[in-house]
Amino acid sequence: MDIHERRGDASPLPLVRFRVSPALATLALTMAFLPMVLGHGGHDASKIPEGQTVSLDPIDTTLWVHIFVQMLAFGILFPLGMVLGIIKSRWHVPLQAVSTALALLGYALGHLHRGRQFNPKNVHAKAATPLFFLMVGQVVVGIYLKLHLEKGFHGRIRPVFRLLHSINGKAFPVYAWVQMVFGGITALGFCQGDHLGQCLAHFIMGGAFIAYAVLLTILLLVGQLWLRRTGRSQEFFDSAVIAAWGCVNTFTEHRWGTEWVKNDWQHTTMGIIWWSAGLVGVWLSRGRDGLPKRNFIPGFVILITGWAMSAHPQELMISAMTHKMFGYTLMGAGLARIIEVSFVLKDKPGVSEDGTQYNSFQFIPVFLLYAAGFLFMGATEEQMSLVAGSGMDHVAYIMILYSLASLLFLFTLALIHVYDRAAPIAQKPLVNGHARVGDEAQLRDASEFELDGLVSDDEDEERAARRKLLKDDGPEEDGLASPSTVGRNSDRVA
C-alpha cells in the first residue's frame, strides 16, 4: 500500500493505492474454492447402468474444457513454473499464480459438467482432493517464503519450509502425470473388475519406461558432472533399480495358490532375469581399481524384455501387433544402449571431460524408451477392444502413440533448455594460465570477423602482419615443453 499526501491544502487528503500480489490473489481464489472441495460430489449416479462406472452419455463441451484446462495447467505450466523456481527466475511466482488460477477453474468445471456421468467414488475424484490441498499448501508456503521472515523463530523454521516447498514443487509433475492417467481411465470407464490387474501392470511399467527416459535425458544434457561427483557409473543406478524391480515382479505377477498360465510364467521369469542380471550389473559397475565402470547389463535387460514382450500371447490381432511393436521398440532401445556404451563412448562417462557435449546417437535409446512407454500404456485389453471397434488399424494407432512420445520428448528438452540457459557457462580450459592455442585462434578469428569493415586500411595491414607472424611461429607454440621453443619465445619478447 502506497500513501501520498497532497500538500498546500488546509486539510490534506491521503491518496491510497493498493497493490495485490499474484500470490495473495491466488490464495484468496483458492480459499473461495475450498467449500467446493469439501462438498465434493454432484455426479448423477442414477444414469449409470448397473455394473458400469460411467453413463452412456457423450462427453459434453464443459467436460472437454475441463480436460484441456487441466492439461494446460498441470501438464505444461506447473512443470515450467517448477523449472523457473529452480533457476530462481522472477517469472516463477506469476506463472505459478496463473497455473493455480487455471487449475481452480478446471476443478470447478469438473463439477459443473453435464453429459457423461461417473461413479462418485472413481479414482480420479478421490485423487483430486489431496492434490488440491497439496496445491493449497504449496501456495501458502510460497507466500510465507516470499515474506522473507528470517529472524527468531522464523529463522529456524524457514529452512524446513524451503525444503518442503522444493520437494512438493518438484513432485508436482509426477502428481499431474498420475492424475491425468486417472482422468483418462475414469472418462472411459476402464480398469475395473477383472481388468484392474493387467491395467496396473501396463500403466505402471509403461510409466516407468517414460520416467527412465526422462531421467536419461536429464543426465545426458545437464547431469553428467553430477553423476561423476557421485563416484558411481550410470549402470550402477540402472542395475540397482532393475534388480529391485525384478524382485517385486517375481513375487507379484502370479497369484499364489492358483494355477499357472502362460502369462504368469512369462511375467515371473521376466522378474527373475531382471533381478539376477541386475545384480551382475551392480557388480560390473566398479572396476578392479575401485573406479566407476560402464557395462552392458541395463541395455541387455531392456533388449531381452523387448524380445519377450514381442512374443506375448494376445487375443486380438491389433493387440498382438501393438505388443510386437512395443517389443521391437524396446529391443531397439536396448541394442542402441549397448552400442552407445561400448562403441560410441568406449566405456567413458561421456563424450567430453566437461560434461557438456554429447553424441547424436545417444538420443536414440532415449527416444525409443519414450515410445516404448507410450506403446505399453496404450496396449491394455480395454484400449485394444476400443481401437479394434473404431475401425482404426494398428499402424495408425502406433503412429499416434509415437507422436505422443515425440511431444513429451520435445517438452522435456524444452524444460531442460530453460534450466540450462540459466546455468553458468563453463570456462575454457587453460594451459599454463592461458587459453589453449586452438581456442585462442577461434576467439581471434571471431573478433576479426566482428570488426571487419570497422577498421582502416592501415589497421588491416597491421593485423595481417601480426597474423603472419603468429602463423610462422605456430608449430613452435605447440611445443611449450620444448627448451628450444622457450628460448625462441624469450628472444622474441626481448
From TrEMBL:
It comes from the Eukaryota. Residues 456-494 are annotated as: Disordered. Residues 176-419 form the Protein YTP1-like C-terminal domain. Gene3D superfamilies: 1.20.120.1770. The chain crosses the membrane at residues 20-42, 63-87, 93-110, 131-149, 172-191, 203-227, 296-313, 325-345, 357-376, 396-419. Residues 47-148 form the DUF2427 domain. Keywords: Membrane, Transmembrane, Transmembrane helix. InterPro entries: DUF2427, YTP1_C. This is Integral membrane protein. It comes from Parathielavia appendiculata.
